[in-house]
Specification:
alpha+beta; eight-stranded mixed sheet; 24% helix
Length: 167
């Protein structure tokens, strides 16, 4: 099986092992005018009105049959001190940094129902690597997937739900 990556436009063998969101849900909820006048957005960070702060990270989910992980590339809203600390350590690495608290900020669409504002612990990592998000224990499907892993059948179902014409 092969697919064409929406990011790079190239064909790749196998199944895609990540779904990445380019913008936090809170940013997408704003009008275009508000986004342009009130926000700073890069691939890794977002601020809204110097009052709300977001970091993009990786939320890994173990793949049971083949090993490895499927990765959700999502955004978490964090406090100003966590955001400022992330900016400091993102250049030097923070493998010894204690985890920080945040909550997911994702697009509001039926496939992601209930994910927005899920609490996560954030682990900063090596320079150039995105932080890792771990969903705080609860009964949400995303928490169960991250804790228990998913089958290839479940992965295929998710990919089909997001990309119905490709899988």
């Amino acid at each position: 099986m092969a697919y064409v990556c929406e990011c790079c436009g190239k064909a790749h063998d196998g199944l895609p092992l990540d779904i990445v969101f380019a913008k936090p849900g809170a940013y997408l909820a704003l009008t275009t005018r508000q986004q342009k006048s009130n926000c700073v957005l890069t691939e890794a960070i977002c601020t809204i009105g110097k009052k709300r702060f977001f970091i993009r990270g990786s939320l890994p989910v173990p793949l049971l049959e083949i090993g490895g992980v499927f990765v959700w590339g999502v955004w978490a809203e964090v406090s100003r001190p966590v955001f400022e600390r992330y900016q400091e350590v993102s250049q030097t690495g923070a493998t010894e940094e204690l985890p920080s608290f945040g909550s997911l900020s994702v697009e509001r669409e039926p496939l992601l129902r209930g994910i927005d504002q899920l609490p996560v612990m954030i682990r900063f990592g090596a320079p150039g690597k995105s932080p890792t998000f771990v969903v705080e224990p609860n009964n949400h499907w995303l928490c169960r997937d991250q804790q228990n892993g998913i089958t290839l059948h479940r992965l295929h179902q998710m990919l089909h739900a997001f990309f119905p014409h490709h899988f």
